[in-house]
DNA sequence: CATGAATGAGTCTTCATTCAT
DNA sequence: TATGAATGAAGACTCATTCAT
């Protein structure tokens, strides 16, 4: 019995996860989840008190971790010598780990959370990244227009780039390699960018 | 009469456009459109047979143009000397023009079409871009893993980058400047990328 | 075992009583009762076959007592000399005792029974009181309109007045004092009333 | 058509009013209203945007009037000579008029509004009446316990007494007569009360 | 005895669409 | 053409109750 309950609970979570990943939170109905889990709609509510509850049970832990990463990002002492390689190395390490460990949960939060209270997480992350880049620009006396657009673009592009590898069902190794590659790609564009503008 | 009719048709389209851009297709109801257009809900159906119809009338033409651009993209003779500057110059020209001319329609198709039969257009576009890049890679004997990811990433990044400037209500000049800037950014990352890998 | 069972039975009844008093019968769910009693919802049905059953077990005895009082009330020999002081003295005595002894059960029946088959008890009681007063009126040759309204009003007013003191968590003494006070209040209005009309 | 619409609107309001009066707001479902009005449940929402909306359309105007009466009640200058006859004469006049004119709406607000934002109106009214009586007590140096109970009781009793006549389907004349009678009844009980306590 | 599992009927509300006039 | 009227299917959620273990 205890076992059964757990089985169904897991079945619900798996069904919901699959559906959320496929259709997003809003376009996934309790009916769909119930049908996929092979139980009645009302029985769902014996396991989770609301649709959002299911979503949170799937993403809670990762959401906290994301917030932690964000906090670290903002802590980064900006006074020290500019070393993107180092910075991005740390970033890439930390990020790759979390991305690989929590692939689906990450996607839930970043791509499928419209309608939940996590729906702005990606935008917030991008915003903070952008702030970070703008600060870098300023420190290097670079001024392209208001810097706003380029920093936002790089932030978005990086963010989406980090998510892209986990959107496909590939091996951890494949993900790791590609993330590293894309970071390198950005470093190049970025560095060149500084050179061009400064010189 | 005929004139009046046309006025209403236009009013409907304008109202719908504004609402679709604000809320997306799915989250815009016929009620909202009717109210904004100042006519009755049922009268909408004298002008358009369904909600999707309104969306199509707003995006048809641009959608065709996009398809055309896509076709040209794929026609591009791959035999000639590799010249991304040239290629991207053409691309940037052509694209900037269409982006500026059809700002809102572009956004409708790319950002607000979930729920319509155009909802995959952006992904298709990205896919074709990716194909294109992969071909380039091949022609230059570059092989990074399966080339799949980097080409996909660059395609996505470029796509989103091109859309980003028109998401804000800025001057044509601002849009043009930023698109050029971001293309340059990519050329840098791109070129360097080849160099690194080749050398 | 038997002891345990009894403990749970009591726990259920106490929990239900508290909840019924707070929210009324309809707005109290089996879930709430189970949670408050610390047992499973389905186990409730091993003790009581339905929600109404719980309510009945809480109010049965008092309901019977009320019916008895009502019977006595109607038995009251109408032939003897009209002595409301005496009558009400008996009434007040009898009533105060039952009100104090069965405070909560009384409130359950009178204030919280909507949705159960006792929901009309208060109205019935008032109706009988009214009948009684009408009889008195008749016996004293008083005729105010059809006597209907005033007798009903006095009945209602008395009823509510008797319930009001026990609605608050005060001492028995406080209840007793206030019930006496309100009966006196009514005797005054009542007596004067007769005087006015007769003279 | 315009006529039809109005007919149905009226039909809905009448059906809803009858059901609200019979079962109260909470226990009346949109299904019941629709069925009674002879239309589909969803069609209700073309006329009223929510269940509460229907209730408000039925009670809005009267609710405002009640608030006005309440305001006047509080304005009453307490310094002048104690003249309950005069005070209650005004009260009875004003009240009788509103009670007769808006019988059903009054009952909706006072008896059937649980679940709406008007659900506390009766209690508020009683509370203000109570405050008023307590003030009177104080001015006449009467102190029965804390005066709280008796003033509350008289307030409640009066309130319920005023409502009682309109709870039945009788003539205006019948209502008027009975309200006057009950006020007289209270004056007697009240006056005597003062006398007893003071002397 | 106890409970986890299950459900069907019900709650209010939304919405794209149809139809008669 | 224009619109008021109408609706069925769907949305999330609640609840008293049943049943197998």
SSE order and pairing:
The structure is a homotetramer of 199-residue chains.
Chain A: H1 2-23, H2 30-37, H3 41-47, H4 51-75, H5 84-101, H6 103-111, H7 121-139, H8 148-163, H9 172-198
Chain A binds a DNA duplex (21 and 21 nucleotides) through residues 1-2, 4-5, 8, 29-31, 39-43, 45-47, 49-51.
Tell me what the structure shows:
The structure is a homotetramer of 199-residue chains. Chain A has 199 residues and is mainly alpha-helical. Chain A is 76% helix and 0% strand. Chain A contains nine helices and no strands. Chain A has helices at residues 2-23, 30-37, 41-47, 51-75, 84-101, 103-111, 121-139, 148-163, 172-198. Chain A is elongated and about 60 Å long. Chains A and B meet through helix 8 and helix 9 of A and helix 8 and helix 9 of B. Chain A binds a DNA duplex (21 and 21 nucleotides) through residues 1-2, 4-5, 8, 29-31, 39-43, 45-47, 49-51.
* Quaternary assembly: homotetramer
Radius of gyration of chain A: 20 Å
Rounded mean pLDDT of chain A is 84
Task: Show unreliable segments of chain A.
Answer: none
Distance between the termini of chain A: 72 Å
| H/E series of chain A | HHHHHHHHH
What's the number of structural domains of chain A?
Answer: 2
Percent of residues in β-strands of chain A: under 5%
User: What global shape of chain A is seen?
Assistant: elongated
What fraction, in percent, of the residue positions of chain A are helical? over 70%
- Note the total helix count of chain A: 9
């Amino acid at each position: 019995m205890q076992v059964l309950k757990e089985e169904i609970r897991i079945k619900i979570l798996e069904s919901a996860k699959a559906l959320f990943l496929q259709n997003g939170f809003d376009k996934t109905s309790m009916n769909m989840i119930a049908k996929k889990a092979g139980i009645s709609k009302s029985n769902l509510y014996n396991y989770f008190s609301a649709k959002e509850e299911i979503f949170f049970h799937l993403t809670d832990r990762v959401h906290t971790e994301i917030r932690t990463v964000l906090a670290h990002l903002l802590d980064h002492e900006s006074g020290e010598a500019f070393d993107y390689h180092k910075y991005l190395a740390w970033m890439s390490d930390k990020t790759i780990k979390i991305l690989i460990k929590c692939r689906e949960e990450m996607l839930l939060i970043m791509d499928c959370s419209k309608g939940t209270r996590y729906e702005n997480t990606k935008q917030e992350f991008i915003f903070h990244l952008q702030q970070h880049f703008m600060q870098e620009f300023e420190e290097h006396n670079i001024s392209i227009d208001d810097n706003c657009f380029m920093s936002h673009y790089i932030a978005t592009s990086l963010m989406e780039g980090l998510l892209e590898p986990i959107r496909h069902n590939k091996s951890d190794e494949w993900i790791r390699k590609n993330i590293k590659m894309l970071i390198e790609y950005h470093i190049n564009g970025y560095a060149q960018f500084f050179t061009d503008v400064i010189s």
